[in-house]
Automatic annotation (TrEMBL):
Gene3D superfamilies, alphabetized: Aspartate Aminotransferase, domain 1 (3.90.1150.10), Type I PLP-dependent aspartate aminotransferase-like (Major domain) (3.40.640.10)
InterPro entries registered for this protein in UniProt: DegT/StrS_aminotransferase, PyrdxlP-dep_Trfase, PyrdxlP-dep_Trfase_major, PyrdxlP-dep_Trfase_small
Catalytic residues as annotated in Swiss-Prot or TrEMBL: K187
Modified-residue entries (N6-(pyridoxal phosphate)lysine), positions: K187
GO molecular function, one term: pyridoxal phosphate binding
Keywords noted in UniProt: Pyridoxal phosphate
Any Pfam family the entry gives: DegT_DnrJ_EryC1
Annotated source species: Stenomitos frigidus ULC18
Family to which the UniProt record says this protein belongs: Belongs to the DegT/DnrJ/EryC1 family.
Lineage: Bacteria, Bacillati, Cyanobacteriota, Cyanophyceae, Leptolyngbyales
GO BP term, example: polysaccharide biosynthetic process
PANTHER family named in the record: 3-OXO-GLUCOSE-6-PHOSPHATE:GLUTAMATE AMINOTRANSFERASE, TRANSAMINASE
Protein name listed in UniProt: Cys/Met metabolism pyridoxal-phosphate-dependent enzyme
Length: 385
């Protein structure tokens, strides 16, 4: 019996391979591999999709976040509020510009930043708030923007996993002051390598990011006005992304259908907590991440083993699953200098011990999904006491 991967890019390529091949060959024939029409065309199309006036393509989602903070002149002595339950890049870029990440706990049902705790974390050193639309579920942006406006703070949206997600019919990345996207291959809109983009409605911020992404120069040549970086999206990736952007809404709809079917098949299964879409938001399900909570008799260590036992059973049955994320950022070795302690952000810590992401991709067939669910049910029947 064939193994079920967490994400299968080969299925996508079977559908759009001819278009992707033609786009790549057109770039190769053009002789223009850095910048040019393909990059500019993608920037225009992606800005229109997000409904912003500006889009600046760059090398990765990490660079998008880094460039956004650089453009805001955030640095040593500044604080940026964010979540401890996400990929390291979110906090990493805050540290990379010399600022301090201030972690706020998450909501149990969305895994996103707990807005009830954000305001209490604001100090005179706070410059920005960086929400993460984790697993493709949008943060309640109107409420967050009201908090930011009251305290004159900038909102930088980490949309790496949420391209196409919406709150009240507005796409994430176009609600905050700046949106940052990743086009890593496993994202809903993925390149065939690294890639990223920044979206904004502020032309000055856009101009600064364009300058910083190209060694601190505005018009090419050898005149540099800032210490920049080399973070240009190459033309091959831009051409591939142009092809894929045409399919994005269809793929997101298919992901939503897969998530709905998981919910239907698993809603009455004991021993798990299913993910929820926030009321008012429209998620795009980059991951389908459920929780395997502990029982009253289990210690934290027992719970960690229980989630891992389920994962090992699935793996033995040919079903791949993932753990995003096994250690919250405030407990990472790199942040121990900030004297972060176990128990400081309880929901994030609990989630790290309980989360398990099932296979999720647009082409996941009902038959294959049935195999995943059957294996999970079989395992839970043996693990739950």
């Amino acid at each position: 019996m064939s193994k079920i991967p967490p994400f299968d890019l080969s299925e996508q390529y079977k559908i759009i391979g001819d278009e992707v091949n033609a786009a790549v060959l057109a770039v190769l024939a053009s002789g223009r591999y850095i910048g040019g029409d393909h990059v500019e065309g993608f920037e225009q199309q992606f800005a229109a999709y997000i409904d912003t006036s500006e889009c600046i393509a760059c090398n990765s989602g990490t660079d998008a976040l880094f460039l956004a903070l650089r453009a805001l002149h955030i640095g040593p002595g500044d604080e940026v509020i964010t979540t401890p339950f996400t990929f390291i890049a979110t906090a990493e870029v805050i540290s990379a510009v010399g600022a301090t990440p201030v972690f706020v706990d998450i909501e149990a049902y969305t895994f996103n930043l707990n807005l009830d705790q954000v305001e209490a974390a604001i100090t005179e050193r706070t410059r920005a708030i960086m929400p993460v639309h984790l697993f493709g579920q949008p943060v309640e942006m109107p409420r967050l923007m009201a908090i930011a406006q009251q305290h004159q703070l900038t909102v930088v949206e980490d949309c790496a996993q949420a391209v196409g997600a919406e709150w009240a019919d507005q796409k994430v990345g176009g609600i905050g002051h700046i949106g940052c996207f990743s086009f890593y291959p496993t994202k809903n809109l993925g390149a065939c390598g690294d890639g990223g983009a920044v979206t904004t409605n502020d032309p000055e911020i856009a101009a600064t990011i364009r300058m910083l992404r190209d060694h601190g120069r505005r018009a090419g040549g050898y005149y540099h006005e800032a210490i920049g970086v080399n973070s240009r999206l190459d033309a091959l990736q831009a051409a591939i992304l142009q092809v894929k952007l045409r399919y994005l809404d269809t793929w997101n709809s298919q992901r939503r259908a897969v998530a709905d079917r998981y919910r239907h098949l698993l809603q009455h299964v004991p021993g798990i907590v299913l993910p929820q879409e926030p009321v008012g938001g429209k998620g795009v399900w980059n991951q389908y991440t459920l929780r395997i909570p502990s029982t009253d008799q289990q210690t934290e260590q027992d719970q960690h083993c229980r989630r891992d036992q389920v994962r090992q059973h699935l793996q033995a049955d040919g079903v791949s699953s993932m753990v995003y994320y096994p250690l919250p950022l405030h407990l990472q070795p790199i942040y121990q200098a900030q004297k972060q302690q176990l128990g400081q952000h309880l929901i994030a810590e609990q989630a790290a011990n309980e989360v398990l992401s099932l296979p999720m991709f647009p082409e996941l067939s009902p038959d294959v999904q049935d195999r995943v669910v059957y294996s999970l049910k079989d395992c839970l029947a043996g693990v739950i006491v």
